[in-house]
Amino acid sequence: MKDMIARWEAYLRLDRLTSVSDLFKARTIYVTAVAFFVTQMFNAVQMYFVYGGWILDHTLLVISVVLLSGSALTLRYQANFDFFSVLWGSMILLAVGGTAIPANVGINSALIPVLVAGIMIVALLGTRRSLLIYCACAALLVVSLHINASQADIAVLSDPAYVALRNTQRSMQAIIAIAMVGAVMGSLTLSLNDLFGSLESNLADARAAEAAKTQFLADMSHELRTPLNGVLGMNQLLLRTDLDETQHNYAKIIEDCGAGMISVIDDVLDLSRLEAERITLTSTPFNPAKMLDSLMSLHQANARAKGINLHLNIEPGLPAMFRGDHGRLRQVIGNLLSNAVKFTDTGYVAMAMRGQDLKDGRWWLNFFVQDSGIGITPERQSRVFDRFEQAQDGQTNTVRGSGLGLSICRELTDLFGGEISVTSEPGKGSQFCVAIPLMAVETDMQTTAPAQNSVVFEDEIETPLAPTIEEPPVALAG
Fold first, then answer.
1. Which end of the chain is flanked by fewer CB atoms within 10 Å, N or C?
2. Which residue ranges does the record assign to the Histidine kinase domain (predicted)?
């Protein structure tokens, strides 16, 4: 249902409406048009069987459906809601008058809800002035119908006095209904206008505050990074001097902490750029197999220090070269691999690449990062890609990470037009999958894949040489 509504709104080009009030009115128009079309088609069928064929009411019904539905389609070109309130209000008044006048017996009580529906539509789409004009015209219509009925020859009816009394009663009921519903809808639309105005004002303030926050983050990140680079540079010079073991350890701690701060600052910078929509992808040829091998080599030292085995598995037969943003893809996969090493204390971290040929030069490449680490609880999996969502060790209750890396991975993957997902079980590890479409580059080379489930480095740690990596849930081509 939501998809159908979204497609219909896209067809009507409602995305160009920036005002919440205008969007509400536009949706009121097309929902009313669809409801009117459906109900009148049902009405036409039942009238056909009741009267045994086509009658004048069918013709009037078709005209009204065409006018109302056709006018709703003009939303694609302009959003003049006063035009809709006048047109639809006039159509309702003409329909009620045209139905009741020929009978010369006053207003039909069954038509009172139609007048009331007109009040609601005009109130929601138009101004308070148009609502007052419609209510006045509706009351005048009721009075004219009553006068027309009183001048008709009703002597032929079985009880003329009762008919006259009934007409007066219905006319009074109609006027009371018009006045009451008009007052209620006038008050409601006044409240709605105030609510929409307040909402749009608050939304504008929130966007301005968000932009100011983003700019502040970017400025502060740059300001922090400059002196921090100076501190780290001087610390590296200090490490090259003659230091005793204790002093060297202290300097090394400074270097590690500074590297962590630089990583956090880089994440904040990327986050601010993503929020400001300043990150764009550049397309250059690159070899994803070499990229993965480089990332594995980069994390060898940290993995070896923790006693973790690294595994790399690349599906053979894939093209050697693809065209895409090598730097941003490396950032996504590198972040996942870094997290896997960080959150795995024993066992292994495995990375794999699979692919599916889309037969038009494009491939869906699936990159897997699997670990035997702390895992993620089911409730956290649903929000693990949210900003500032931090991983937590269920055994030690220790919070790890800044909570920005995976959010940046998701947003960068979205820029690629791909998908990122996670499956995990607490205490048994996690598996992240990044699926993105990339264009293959024609070359005589083929992917030089390492042996299946090959170990990048070996040691005496007893871990499985072939960790299970499930087949990718390949995303559908767009």
1. N
2. 219-440
Question: How far is Cα 227 from Cα 218, in angstroms, rounded to an integer?
Answer: 15
Q: Which CATH architecture has domain 284-455?
A: 2-Layer Sandwich (3.30)
Kindly give the pairing relationship between strand 308-314 and strand 347-357.
parallel
> What is the pTM (predicted TM-score) of this model?
0.51
- Encode pLDDT of 194-222 as tens digits: 888 888 888 888 878 877 776 776 677 66
Nearest Cα neighbor of 94 from 153, 58, 39, 138 is 138
- Domain coordinates of the chain in residue numbers? 80-205, 284-455
* Residues ≥6 apart with Cβ < 8 Å to 263: none
Q: Which of 405, 376, 374 is nearest to 388 (CA)?
A: 405
The pLDDT of 396-401, averaged and rounded, is 46
Residue 468: name the closest of 366, 348, 335 by CA: 348
375 vs 432: CA distance, rounded Å: 11
CB atoms within 10 A of CB 402: 16
Sign of CA dihedral 8, 9, 10, 14: positive
